[in-house]
């Protein structure tokens, strides 16, 4: 079992009023699963992603990730967990504009304390794996959206994370690039990579093997997809 | 990692070259101001001390107070003049002092068909060592000249040229009034010090001056050299007492102590240093505020980058270090440029002062390595100090919020 959420609540304060974002979420994700979390905007997807990604702490409840009791850990240790156990993929890629593809992929390795040679070798290997071996020295404004997202995926994989956490990974891509990215996810999944993907699009959610539906901060459905659609097109 | 952070900082600064340049300008001006101000005050001090040394050091100036009508009536019949005898008595009583009695006379000089009218100074042989003013050719007055009321005259460099052109003046005759004198020395060039042009001096023996020109034994003043600077106050007081006693108890003597003057000068220079240094430090602080301002803008602009870095594993101290290195880089580069600008400005202003000030020909700024070190250290401290708040702000950003910052 990779992820265990037990009775997670998250409440935001808006002035005097408490706004519940997540209500009593209990959820378990095993090693190697490919899970889609789907819901309308405002359903609590993003809040759930923040908590699962150790970017913020729940108001109450327990969170275990790969054996770490996350909700009891201080900020300083969460950073290390994000660095080593989680690979983030964002809708807007979040590449650093003043850095080349290679340098962007090196970043998590640098923060993990790897030597420069190790950083460069590993980054080159990862970019080759996502098909960008001829784009190593390009800056993000010299890359297409699909290529930028591939750089982001390479960066997410840098420290061999136990969990790949994707937030609307195809949201800013044209349909062909989106399909390519999903195909890449599918390939990573077959290699045993655990993936949690957040989306509002049911078709994209259908690429996963399990679909969790959120509404108003609660899990309203958790179903297996026995026959994932073949990658569209 | 440090190397990478430093390269990032350089990239970010050069990516916003105009902004970085303007921010650096504050530091450049601050550092340059510190260096220039210190160099100019230092140069002023060196110049003042130097001119004091040329004027002679450890000097006491003795002259007679002007008495009021009432005082003159009150002290009628008492001995209330400064006389040649006073000088001789001082020399006898205090043998380790050098004493030069002085009278100033108006004189008409004539040599051949050239003439000159000006002041003639009658004094003793001690004048030369006291004033640190030596003959370039010939010999200065001697005690024999005094004893024999000799008609010997010593000329300043300019006078010698006026009267004799490029010819040697030694041994030539000069008429002062209707008395015939022989030139025994031409003095080295010394220039003007505090409004007194030594090169325009005409010096004759005091005894000759008293006997042939003045007809009394009153002298106008005395310059006295004290061998030990530490004893100047003590000797000044002893002299005062000694002279009052000789003047039948009338206190009609002024003694000015060059040591007091030097102390006052030191205090003035210290004040200058503090005031100018303070202004320069304020300039540097303003530069620091500029850094802080721009770093705060940078942190806001790069909130998403900070969020991303935190999401993929940057610790607080990594972010802190990143922004501190950026602000410090601004101040270090600005500091280096400021040092160059400061040195150039110091020498430039030094030259201007030298040209503008009478007798300031050898005036020059003095740039000291310690001043450079202080200015540079200050600049780095400003970079770190004023970068700290923005960097802390950056490091404390919440990663989830920062990532979605618009």
Structural classification of chain B: alpha+beta
Write the CATH architecture name of chain A.
3-Layer(aba) Sandwich
Shape of chain A: globular
Cross-sheet strand order for the largest sheet of chain A: 6-7-8-3-9-10
* Helical segment count of chain A: 7
Question: What's the CATH C level of chain A?
Answer: Alpha Beta
The coarse overall form of chain B would be elongated
Written account of the structure:
The complex is a heterodimer of chains A (233) and B (406). Chain A is of the alpha/beta class and 233 residues long. Chain A has a single domain, classed as Rossmann fold, CATH 3.40.50.300. In chain A, 33% of the residues lie in helices and 29% in strands. The longest helix of chain A is centred in the last third of the chain and has 16 residues, at 175-190. With 406 residues, chain B is of the alpha+beta class. Chain B has 2 domains: 2-53 and 263-403, no CATH class; 66-251, no CATH class. Chain B has 14 helices and 12 strands. Chain B has helices spanning 2-15, 17-55, 69-74, 84-93, 127-131, 143-147, 157-164, 206-214, 232-246, 258-301, 303-311, 316-356, 369-395, 399-403, and strands at residues 59-64, 98-111, 114-123, 135-138, 152-155, 173-176, 179-187, 192-193, 196-197, 202-205, 221-225, 253-257. At the A-B interface, helix 2 and helix 3 of A face helix 1, helix 11 and helix 14 of B.
In short:
Chain A has 233 residues and is of the alpha/beta class.
Based on the model shown, name its key terms:
heterodimer, A: 233 residues, alpha/beta, Rossmann fold, 4-stranded antiparallel sheet, B: 406 residues, alpha+beta, 6-stranded mixed β-barrel, two-stranded antiparallel sheet, 14 helices, 12 strands, 58% helix, 17% strand
């Amino acid at each position: 079992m990779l992820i265990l959420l037990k009775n997670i609540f998250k409440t935001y304060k808006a002035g005097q009023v408490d706004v519940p974002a997540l209500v009593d979420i209990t959820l378990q994700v095993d090693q190697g699963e490919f899970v889609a979390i789907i819901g309308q905007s405002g359903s609590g997807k993003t809040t759930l992603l923040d908590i699962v990604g150790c970017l913020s702490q729940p108001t109450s409840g327990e969170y275990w990730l790969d054996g770490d009791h996350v909700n009891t850990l201080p900020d300083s240790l969460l950073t290390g967990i994000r660095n080593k156990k989680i690979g983030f993929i964002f809708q807007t890629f979040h590449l650093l504009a003043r850095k080349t593809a290679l340098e962007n992929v090196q970043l998590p390795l640098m923060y993990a304390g790897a030597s420069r040679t190790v950083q460069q070798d590993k980054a080159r290997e990862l970019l080759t794996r996502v098909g960008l071996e001829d784009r190593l020295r390009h800056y993000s404004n010299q890359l297409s959206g699909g290529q930028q997202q591939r750089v982001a995926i390479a960066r997410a994989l840098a420290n061999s994370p136990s969990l790949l956490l994707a937030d609307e990974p195809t949201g800013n891509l044209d349909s062909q690039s989106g399909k390519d990215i999903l195909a890449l996810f599918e390939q990573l999944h077959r290699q045993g990579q655990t993936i949690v993907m957040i989306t509002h699009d049911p078709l994209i959610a259908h690429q996963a093997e399990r679909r969790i539906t959120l509404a108003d901060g609660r899990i309203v459905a958790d179903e297996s997809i026995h026959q994932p659609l073949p990658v569209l097109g | 990692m440090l190397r990478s952070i430093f390269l990032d900082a350089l990239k970010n600064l050069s990516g916003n070259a105009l902004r970085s340049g303007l921010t650096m300008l504050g530091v450049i001006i601050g550092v340059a101001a510190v260096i220039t101000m210190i160099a100019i005050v230092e140069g002023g001090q060196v110049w003042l001390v130097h001119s004091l040394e040329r004027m002679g050091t450890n000097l006491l100036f003795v002259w007679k107070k002007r008495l009021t009508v009432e005082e003159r009536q009150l002290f009628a019949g008492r001995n209330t003049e400064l006389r040649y005898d006073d000088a001789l008595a001082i020399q006898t009583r205090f043998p380790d002092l050098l004493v030069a009695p002085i009278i100033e006379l108006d004189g008409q000089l004539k040599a051949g068909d050239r003439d000159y009218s000006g002041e003639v100074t009658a004094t003793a042989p001690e004048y030369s060592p006291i004033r640190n003013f030596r003959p370039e050719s010939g010999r200065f007055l001697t005690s024999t000249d005094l004893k024999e009321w000799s008609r010997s005259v010593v000329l300043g460099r300019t006078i010698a040229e006026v009267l004799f052109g490029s010819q040697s003046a030694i041994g030539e005759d000069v008429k002062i009034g209707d008395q015939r004198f022989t030139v025994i020395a031409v003095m080295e060039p010394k220039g003007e010090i505090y409004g007194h042009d030594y090169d325009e001096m005409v010096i004759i023996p005091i005894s000759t001056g008293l006997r042939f020109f003045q007809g009394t034994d009153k002298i106008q003043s005395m310059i006295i050299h004290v061998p030990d600077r530490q004893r100047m106050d003590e000797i000044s007081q002893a002299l005062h007492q000694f002279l009052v006693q000789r003047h039948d108890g009338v206190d009609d003597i002024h003694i000015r102590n060059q040591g007091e003057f030097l102390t006052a000068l030191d205090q003035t220079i210290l004040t200058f240093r503090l005031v100018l240094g303070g202004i320069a430090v304020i300039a540097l602080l303003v530069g620091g505020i500029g850094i802080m301002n721009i770093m705060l803008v940078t942190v806001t602009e790069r909130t998403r980058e900070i969020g991303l870095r935190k999401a993929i594993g940057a610790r607080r101290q990594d972010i802190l270090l990143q922004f501190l290195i950026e602000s410090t880089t601004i101040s270090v580069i600005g500091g280096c440029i400021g040092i160059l600008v400061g040195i150039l400005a110091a020498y430039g202003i030094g030259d201007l002062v030298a040209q503008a000030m009478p007798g300031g020909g050898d005036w020059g700024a003095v740039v000291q390595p310690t001043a450079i070190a202080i200015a540079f250290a200050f600049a780095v401290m400003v970079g770190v100090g004023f970068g700290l708040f923005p960097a802390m702000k950056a490091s404390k950003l919440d990663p989830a919020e920062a990532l979605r910052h618009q």
